Q: What sequence folds into this?
């Protein structure tokens, strides 16, 4: 007789399967890691986490349209404004599919945005949304890496954050909520005074759960675990009762069969 899985075991199996599927989802990484860049910059997109299946072919999507590349990396050697937009990678994409093809891709990454700007400077950040207490990394990047000096990083209304005689990345060890807002940088390219566009950095408070909410979570957790335990116990006794009934029936049948045989 095959063993029956308890509800708890079934929930654990479903959870493990869901987590495994999430872990197999590909991820698009940028090298260098900046999603804002200037015209003529070079960037390589890497599709990581694709299972090495023999019948899988990596495909790239730009704004929902297929790119003629099957390699795990896709390089833009000299960026243009039209290279801006959403990039994703996946496997098993048919070239005959329409533009709305996400439902036909066996494994599709989350989108990564690229922003190509035309100008002298662009302010780059490792991340635009940061948790309170995490580091902030800003970079004032010049067009074609022109020599940039007397660089100032500024916050919101022109208030200076840091000044460097030579171009240097800005590192802030611990972000505070008051650091949220708009930033830009400016400096000298030769004798030309140039500035970047303004960008927004958001510093979020660390997630916390109030005692009242935590109490409700604990109550709900206790109720769910109690219900699962009750179902598990009921299933156990049901299987035990049915098994005992089956064995008793089999025993009675054996006794009757043996008695009939002896009478003959």
A:
């Amino acid at each position: 007789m095959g063993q029956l899985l308890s509800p708890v075991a079934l929930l654990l199996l479903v959870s493990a399967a869901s987590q495994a599927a999430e872990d197999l989802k590909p991820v698009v990484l940028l090298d260098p890691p900046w999603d804002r860049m200037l015209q003529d910059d070079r960037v390589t997109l890497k599709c990581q986490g694709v299972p090495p299946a023999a019948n899988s072919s990596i495909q790239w999507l730009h704004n929902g349209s297929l790119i003629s590349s099957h390699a795990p990396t896709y390089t833009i050697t000299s960026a243009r404004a039209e290279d801006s937009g959403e990039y994703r990678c996946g496997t098993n994409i048919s070239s005959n599919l329409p533009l709305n093809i996400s439902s036909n891709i066996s494994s599709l990454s989350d989108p990564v945005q690229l922003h190509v700007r035309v100008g002298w400077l662009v302010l780059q950040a490792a991340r635009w949304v940061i948790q309170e207490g995490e580091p902030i990394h800003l970079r004032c990047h010049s067009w074609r890496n022109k020599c940039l000096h007397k660089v100032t990083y500024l916050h919101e209304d022109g208030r200076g954050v840091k000044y460097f005689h030579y171009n240097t990345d800005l590192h802030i060890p611990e972000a505070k909520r008051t650091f949220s807002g708009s930033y830009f940088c400016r400096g000298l390219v030769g004798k030309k005074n140039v500035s970047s566009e303004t960008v927004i950095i958001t510093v979020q408070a660390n997630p916390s759960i109030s005692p009242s909410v935590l109490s409700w979570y604990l109550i709900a957790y206790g109720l769910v675990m109690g219900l699962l335990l009750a179902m598990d116990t009921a299933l156990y006794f049901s299987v035990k009762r049915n098994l005992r009934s089956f064995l008793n029936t089999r025993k009675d049948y054996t006794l009757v069969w043996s008695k009939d045989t002896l009478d003959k």
Notes: Confidence is low (pLDDT under 50) at residues 8-21, 95-100. The radius of gyration is 31 Å.
